[in-house]
Write a structure and sequence with these properties.
Blueprint (H helix, E strand, L loop, with lengths): L1 E5 L2 E4 L4 E8 L9 E7 L6 E6 L6 E3 L7 E6 L4 E6 L8 E8 L15 E2 L3 E6 L1
Parallel strand pairs: 2-11
Antiparallel strand pairs: 1-3, 3-8, 4-5, 4-9, 5-6, 7-8, 9-10, 9-11
Length: about 130
């Protein structure tokens, strides 16, 4: 199963961008999985950004993006989106979508132990 992230690009600080995640090849049903977005800036480790729980629209975010980024899932189209608003230069990174079926323990979806990953899409925020 391959996930495909898209929608990255160059955006000015304060602007908005919408990332999308879809599957290619063997289909993976997003509603049956915890779906997450992670990012990795140059020289830094990959970090959790947002997640949406399986079977429910419950979401969670890292503190630095709360109130600015919003994750959503379209079950009919089997896609997941990350709406990025009021972006900042520090949001510059490669963004990855990921899917995992099992998740045990509080905040487990924040760890990078996902089963499937997309190839990443670059977001560059200019000041």
């Amino acid at each position: 199963v391959q996930l495909q992230a898209s929608g990255g690009g160059l955006v000015q600080a304060g602007g908005s961008l919408r990332l999308s995640c879809a599957t290619s090849g063997r289909t993976l049903t997003f509603s049956d999985h915890y779906m997450g977005w992670f990012r990795q800036a140059p020289g830094k480790e990959r970090e959790f950004v947002a997640a949406i729980m399986k079977y429910a629209p419950t979401t969670d975010y890292t503190d630095s993006v709360k109130g600015r980024f919003f994750i959503s899932r379209d079950n009919a189209k089997n896609t997941v989106h990350l709406q990025m608003n009021s972006v900042k230069p520090e949001d510059t990174a490669v963004y990855y979508c990921a899917a995992r079926y099992y998740c045990s323990g509080y905040g487990c979806y924040k760890s990078p132990d996902y089963d499937h990953w997309g190839q990443g899409t670059l977001v560059t925020v200019s000041s």
